[in-house]
Design a protein that fits this description.
Number of strands: 2
Order of helices and strands: HHHEEHHHHHHHHHHHHHHHHHHHH
Helix content: over 70%
Number of helices: 23
Distance between the termini: 13 Å
Radius of gyration: 22 Å
Structural class: mainly alpha
Length: 509
């Protein structure tokens, strides 16, 4: 099937003017979201803001589902925007991974937006609701642009739009802590952007191109004579995108931003915003530089070290937190460590698991943040010690939290376990058996901060004394997005073989 796909790529590259209607979908999804971002702010009626926003996100999800089916049936394709083909025109390259991640992003965003319709006004002022949805429309458009683009400069532009929109959904709460966290994120992200731009400039100086395909062709020809520039540009991309992707120790903006933002914003930031730069990094590594050049440098070893440190230190910091949202935020640093760890292993299975864990973490962490948001909303408590016995008052919400936490810990069948198991096999494949100890230690640390919340939430006479069964539960219709996210998360584990097989068809491997 991979050979068939690559053949189709060649065919579509050479006959790019023959546009299949279904190949318009990636561009249309971005255009629809951007048009929505213009329409939503002018709506006066709050109900219309909710309805239009939900309708747009639903439409984009359906279109991305059709796009994935199209790629599975007809193979990967390239789509030229405008009259000029690469290297002069803007080109989208839609591979299996792009299609899967596009569908993932639109699905998770749809679930979060659906949930936010019942809770957002309890966290932000009513007059800011349309502002919040406008930014989310713009944010998803830019994230899809990062995923689909085949041009590093356009990828950079989409990256910047996503950063500004992400800052906006942090400050939507309009509190001093949010503004301070957003400024911290903006300053550090701007530093990351500067480094990425310098990396692009270095590549342009030696290749004269911005198209990923053309840069790669030139780099292959001149790799021997440009080793220093290649290494410097690789480091610039790694550090720049590492800041945006919360790679340890460049993650320092994340805990404040994720913990102080409104709960739907926290879920979007953790599930989507920090994932897009990693996909962009993988594309640059394997489509711009190529496997042979990347493996000839120290960059994968650096990623492996930082990923390992993130897996351990992110969990150590999470264990020390007293506030629930802040603990979940540090947990994201640890989970991003698994993704960088997988890329850093440098073998096929490691890279496969990095992509799979992006999917697994997106559905799991969005569910966790929304469950925590529900608990805080219903109880008013933010600290872990204050929510003992919450399992009696909010049994369904804590059950959703527990399933997601089990996945993070690595309980069998759930997606977190699939990632850890295969990352262990990938580590054995490299001959670096000591890496197994890092995965094991990280899993134990995960258990050390998730299990006490679950145990104290459901058990203990002192914890449950005076609590009334389901007294603080939200209606099922309000919990439905969380329930769907949890079901999809479980299915991601059960059908991991099919998902991994589909990822493997991507041209990165």
């Amino acid at each position: 099937m991979k050979l068939i796909s690559l053949t189709l790529l060649n065919v579509t590259s050479s006959s790019i003017s023959k546009i299949n209607t279904l190949e318009l979908i990636p561009l249309l999804t971005i255009m629809i979201l951007m048009m929505g971002a213009f329409i939503v702010p002018i709506l006066k009626n709050k109900k219309n803001v909710y309805k239009i926003s939900l309708a747009i996100f639903s439409l984009v999800f359906i279109m991305n589902l059709v796009n994935l089916v199209n790629v599975i049936n007809n193979g990967i394709f390239m789509f030229t925007i405008g009259h000029f083909s690469a290297p002069f025109g803007i080109v989208f390259r839609i591979d299996y991974i792009e299609s899967i991640i596009g569908l993932l992003f639109s699905f998770v965003m749809l679930m979060i937006v659906w949930y936010s319709m019942y809770s957002l006004e309890k966290e932000i002022k009513v007059k800011r609701v349309s502002f919040f949805y406008t930014l989310n429309l713009l944010l998803l458009a830019s994230l899809l642009g990062i995923i689909y683009t085949y041009d590093i400069f356009n990828g950079f532009v989409f990256l910047e739009v996503s950063t500004l929109a992400a800052c906006g959904i942090i400050i939507a709460k309009d509190k001093k802590t949010n503004i301070k966290a957003a400024l911290k994120y903006l300053i550090l992200s701007t530093l990351g952007s500067g480094l990425v731009l310098m990396g692009i400039a270095f590549l342009y100086s030696i290749t004269g191109h911005l198209s990923m395909e053309f840069i790669h062709d030139e780099l292959v020809k001149s790799a021997a004579s440009n080793q220093n520039i290649i290494l410097i540009s690789l480091i610039l991309f790694t550090v720049g995108l590492g800041i945006k992707g919360a790679m340890f120790p460049l993650h320092i903006w994340l805990p404040d931003a994720h913990s102080s933002a409104p709960s739907p914003s926290s879920a979007i930031l953790s599930a989507l915003v920090i994932k897009a730069p990693i996909i962009f990094m993988i594309k640059i590594f394997y489509m711009v530089y190529g496997k042979n050049i990347i493996q000839g440098t120290v960059i994968l070893n650096i990623l492996l070290i930082f990923g390992s440190l993130g897996m351990i230190m992110g969990s150590v910091f999470a264990r020390r937190q007293k506030e629930l949202k802040r603990m979940i935020a540090y947990s994201s640093v640890a989970q991003m460590g698994y993704i960088f760890f997988g890329i850093g292993l440098g073998n096929e299975l490691g890279l496969l698991m990095a992509v799979y864990h992006i999917i697994a973490h997106a559905v799991t962490k969005s569910s966790l943040f929304l469950a925590v948001g529900s608990i805080i909303e219903q109880t008013g408590f933010k600290k872990i010690d204050d929510i003992k016995g919450i399992g009696k008052e909010m049994p369904v919400t804590l059950a959703i939290f527990s399933i997601s936490a089990f996945s993070m810990i690595g309980i069998p069948v759930l997606p977190g376990f699939i990632s850890k198991w295969n990352l262990s096999l990938a580590s054995i494949e490299t001959g670096k058996l000591y890496l197994l100890a890092i995965i094991l230690l990280s899993s134990l640390l995960n258990a050390a901060y998730y299990f006490p919340i679950i145990i104290n939430g459901y058990f203990g006479e002192d914890n449950l004394d005076g609590k009334v069964f389901r007294s603080k539960s939200k209606p099922i219709k309000e919990l439905m997005p969380l329930i769907i996210l949890s079901v999809i998360m479980i299915l991601t584990g059960f059908f991991s073989g099919k998902i991994i097989e589909l990822i493997k068809f991507g041209s990165y491997f």
